[in-house]
Amino acid sequence: MSASRSSISQAQSYQEMGKFWDTHDLTQFWDQTAPAEIEVDIQSEVTYYPVDVTLSTRLAEAARRRGISAETLLNLWVQERLVTATS
Fold this sequence. Notes:
Helices cover 47% and strands 0% of the residues. It has three helices and no strands.
């Protein structure tokens, strides 16, 4: 966080800011806010494929043992298989 304080909470650290917002509501300070413009550029696309419930359960357990999400593990395995299949 920069040396300046956050505008509403006057916090000097992210921890102080978190404590402030744990006990306050933005509606209390709505008049101190300003509109903001943001752009979202989503680079990835999600495609869903049905997976047998038994395989899904086994996948989730294997991912949990590795400390990653089932989605990540599935993507890694599919990627490995496609590399092997196309070489």
